[in-house]
Specification:
Blueprint (H helix, E strand, L loop, with lengths): L5 H12 L5 H8 L3 H13 L19 E9 L4 H9 L4 E6 L6 E7 L2 H12 L5 E9 L7
Antiparallel strand pairs: 1-3, 1-4, 2-3
Length: 145
């Protein structure tokens, strides 16, 4: 595991807040030289601390007004196959293997309840190895720092 100092953590925090920061702005925010910022950024990427840069979107504005968490119970020793099958379903945003009374937690986004129903009942439950599902509708959500 990479050893991170306060400057590394400050850089990661700044990039999580705005992944489009220039190296110059990143250096200014973290009070280091641009050369140091370049070197640290390269090391953070090489060490796998920073795995990529992404865009955060508003699901509602993308037309994905309905979302839910779906717990999935699976057959023993099928988690790799099920996880792969779930990740290929349109609308599945996140797949997490968990230690709970169920085996996998999935976040699904859909245009409406009809599409959500089709994803859960028609596609998730059809993945080989899936034994049962349970769905929790998400009323609202937000990111925390």
């Amino acid at each position: 595991m990479a050893q991170l100092d306060e400057t590394d953590l400050a850089m990661v925090d700044a990039l999580r807040a705005d992944g489009r920061l220039s190296v110059r702005a990143l250096a200014e925010q973290t009070h280091i030289s641009r050369a140091n910022a370049y070197a640290r950024l390269e090391r953070l990427q090489r060490d796998g601390v920073i795995t990529g840069f992404t865009v955060t979107v508003d699901p509602d504005r993308m037309g994905l007004a309905t979302s839910a968490f779906v717990s999935v119970s699976i057959e023993q020793d099928s988690w790799r196959r099920v996880a792969q099958g779930l990740s290929e379903i349109p609308g599945v945003q996140r797949v997490a293997l968990v230690g709970a009374e169920f085996d996998i937690l999935v976040q699904v986004r859909a245009h409406d309840n009809h599409e959500l129903r089709d994803v859960v009942l028609g596609q998730i439950q059809a993945v080989p190895g899936v034994r049962a599902t349970r769905t929790w509708l998400i009323f609202d959500e937000w990111e925390t720092a």
